[in-house]
């Protein structure tokens, strides 16, 4: 989900972190704040409304699994449509790049460059190498019969050569092409079709517009110091029904907060939050289940969050924890000191097993 936000916001990657939030995940008055991921984790409370604790664990897991499966299905569908849009746009953009031999000419030529509607005359486009400009000017009228004098004009050029027009009678086209080729002049197969050129330009504009609309964000929604929008208030979309307005917001707030924000980015923000909140509930569930399996019933354990101030202190923290809790599992404690000691029934590497229940939460989703 985070990577999809990065891809959609490719032109504003610096703003990605502020769009990866856990909004609506905390209770009461904090529900409508911008909740960053560490704040959500450190203030985590089990959501009794969504995942009733009185239900069997299998039912809670099933609810989480169905919710995440639906998000994943929608994500695949939406990103596939977005990637198709990007691919079509890139293919059109490629046509407008490259040299004069391969690129589209629809954005270079104009109606005035051609003789149109004539039964006898036709205008051709010829690519001439830069060192041969003078030779072209001297010889193009005599490359074949029936070339209109003074009909050539340079309309575009790149690093290798220039694109010239030349007008001649239709009956000598093949002869002119042959003579041009002998003189290292290349006739581009191009016939001016105003409708086709217009269609291609409109297609490019439409794809650019559609792509931009998928991620374009509002500068109004989070304007600091606004009397209408307090610094922390952001759009909150109710779970399960993105179209339903959030409680506690006026129509004006809702309209302004959504202004300019593309549908794909809006969906990703809401469902990233949904998926993240579900993920942390799964972490809590795993801590509970593993602790009961380790220490038995009645439930007698304490779950805590530990965040080392820096990576270098992680090893020291491990040593202290292993020393303090080694009495909980002597075999595990011994295996940490001696990798040859095997723990019966353990499917993990010994390095992933400790005398205490441990699960890693990595919030560096963009690394």
What is the topological layout?
Elements: H1 2-8, H2 37-42, H3 57-95, E1 121-129, H4 133-139, E2 153-157, E3 161-169, H5 173-182, E4 186-188, H6 194-215, H7 251-258, H8 263-295, H9 314-325, H10 330-337
Antiparallel strand pairs: 1-3, 1-4, 2-3
Helix pairs in contact: 1-8, 3-6, 3-8
Summarize the model shown.
By secondary structure, the chain is of the alpha+beta class. The protein is built from 10 helices and 4 strands; from the N terminus they run H-H-H-E-H-E-E-H-E-H-H-H-H-H. Strands 2-3-1-4 form a 4-stranded antiparallel beta sheet, with helices on one face.
List the main descriptive attributes of the protein structure presented here.
367 residues; alpha+beta; subunit c (vma5p) of the yeast v-atpase, domain 2; Alpha-Beta Plaits; 2 domains; four-stranded antiparallel beta sheet; 10 helices; elongated; proton-transporting ATPase activity, rotational mechanism; transport; ATPase_V1-cplx_csu; hydrogen ion transport; ion transport
What would your notes on this structure say?
There is one protein chain. This protein is of the alpha+beta class and 367 residues long. It folds into two domains: 1-90 and 261-343 and 351-366, Up-down Bundle (subunit c (vma5p) of the yeast v-atpase, domain 2), CATH 1.20.1460; 111-191, Alpha-Beta Plaits, CATH 3.30.70. 41% of the residues lie in helices and 7% in strands. It has ten helices and four strands, in the order H-H-H-E-H-E-E-H-E-H-H-H-H-H. It has helices at 2-8, 37-42, 57-95, 133-139, 173-182, 194-215, 251-258, 263-295, 314-325, 330-337; strands spanning 121-129, 153-157, 161-169, 186-188. Strands 2-3-1-4 form a four-stranded antiparallel sheet, covered by helices on one side. Helix 1 (2-8) packs antiparallel against helix 8 and helix 3 (57-95) packs antiparallel against helix 8 (263-295). The longest helix has 39 residues, at 57-95.
